[in-house]
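How a chain folds remains the central question behind the approach discussed here. For one protein, we set the task of working out the structure tokens from the amino acid sequence alone. The sequence in question and its structure tokens are set out directly beneath this paragraph.

_____
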Amino acid sequence: MMKSPTTDYARRNPSSGARSTPDRYGYSQSSAYSDSSTERKSNSGRNAATLAVRSVAGAFIACFTPPETEKSKNQLDSEEFKSSSGSVISNASGASSDRKRGSHRGIYGNSYNSTQGKEAGSLHLTMEEIYDATRNFSPSLKIGQGGFGTVYKGRLRDGTFVAIKRAKKNVYEKHLGVEFQSEIQTLSRVEHLNLVKFYGYLEHENERIVIVEYVPNGTLREHLDCIHGNSLDLAARLDIAIDVAHAVTYLHMYTDHPIIHRDIKSSNILLTENFRAKVADFGFARSAPDSDSGATHVSTQVKGTAGYLDPEYLRTYQLTEKSDVYSFGVLLVELVTGRRPIEPRFQLSERITTRWAMKKFVDGEAISILDPKLQLTAANNLALEKTLELALQCLAPRRQERPSMKRCAEILWTIRKDYRELAASDFRSFSSSSQRSASIKV
């Protein structure tokens, strides 16, 4: 098997919880988003978007991606985009590369040693060892259930904890075999600290097993639902968005051949104890079109998750990297609102979260859609507005109007930088005010 080591690194406050793997399924054209594929043009300005929404009720608004300036093109070469070793993503001449395949330097590669000391793809376990690690697939060790099968927490004989994915055994579900092969082939090709690490796989009689890194702190969706206790603050949510943007940018631009994930969603984003995000579940992954041959898309059956599906892909069966960008736009809205993409419990006008949120945003009512678990501060309001502006671009009906994942990462870095500066200013103002109040009381 091919080897592709990846690692974890730490920051933020620790937490705990179990991981779950949600359902995945092939998707037909009967999507709740199928009516949002009408193509409309507007510029990226707020006023133009407002006119578009008000002229066509209940539809999405697209905005063209702002033209990249030399400053934005070179932003990846800034201090903020350097790895801890000080390297940056660059080609031989020092300029940033739009598609540098096979490069693993800087933030899109990973040269650190694994905390668990396991080489990717290095485990060659027998079924006896799998049974031993999972105590014969004990229900008490079950940590997830999905379309692929069941996920168990396992402990190897050397003490290492792993996640063991056991495929369903229904011989009539031939697509599961395809997903199994897709997942192991993709995982064996990639290495990034924001992707789950692949340890190995096993096919034995009617058993199909995938062994991956155990990520202990649950999924992003679970944390947005406060299943593990306290809610994530907006600073943590921005960090997670950036982690995911880096991971998907790596898949699109810095692997030997570009990869489209096809199932970017909050329940496929696992969090470490230090709240590092790791993108998981590569059963739907596909190789991107070969741009060197002039191909612009891959024609393929529609697969994904309702609420995250690119309406253009749904309508045309043409898959590109921009389908992941659309799903990422849905994820951004999910992060700032706390809502799931489809919310049947709400009234009809609010059931499709992105449609509801985008209309509120362009009507100047963004503050009303902020997750009620988040505080109403100047810094949060700024980050909310800027994040929704980026989401609006990602959700454009036509793929040509959506930014690249690399551009999304750049914009998110800027949003986080501005957010931190304003939050620090707010804190200093609050401290000064508290000191003045204390002196008056004395």
The longest strand covers residues 149-155. The chain is about 35% helix and 10% strand.
